[in-house]
Amino acid sequence: MDDPIYDIELEDCPICRGAGLIQDEQGWSVSVACMDCGAETAHAEYRTPEERLEAARRVALLWNMGKVVHTGMSD
Ligand SMILES: [Zn+2]
């Protein structure tokens, strides 16, 4: 699939160093989440494909700055 939001560079998870993944929530918002510990950025809403890419870049930036909330289990 040729989707530009998945080409955005993502750093490792700021909490556990796991892999971050862009999540597209049913066509209305995007966020970045860690598949290992469940850390997640805020969701950014969009209405158009252009806004979607912008929103994805915004959450990727939050992720890369370590601005995540840890909603998973503590260990
Ligand atoms: Zn993590």
What does this structure look like?
By secondary structure, the protein is an alpha+beta fold. Helices cover 21% and strands 24% of the residues. Strand 1 and strand 2 form a beta hairpin. The model has no long low-confidence stretch (mean pLDDT 93). The site of zinc ion has 8 residues, from loops.
Topology at a glance:
Layout (H helix, E strand, L loop, with lengths): L19 E6 L3 E6 L4 E2 L3 E2 L3 H16 L4 E2 L5
Antiparallel strand pairs: 1-2, 2-4, 3-5
Can you summarize this structure?
The chain is an alpha+beta fold and 75 residues long.
Structural class: alpha+beta
Counted by DSSP, the helix tally is: 1
Strand content: 15-25%
Please state the CA-atom Rg, rounded to the nearest Å.
Answer: 12 Å
Q: Taking strands numbered 1, 2, ... along the chain, how are they ordered across the largest sheet?
A: 1-2-4
Through-space gap between termini: 36 Å
**Which residues sit in consecutive blocks of at least 5 with pLDDT less than 50?**
none
Ligand roster: zinc ion
**How many strands, which pairing sense, and closed or not: the largest β-sheet?**
3 strands, antiparallel
**Integer average pLDDT:** 93
Q: What is the overall silhouette?
A: globular
N-to-C SSE series? EEEEHE
In the residues, how many domains can be counted?
Answer: 1
Give the number of DSSP strands: 5
Helix content estimate: 10-25%
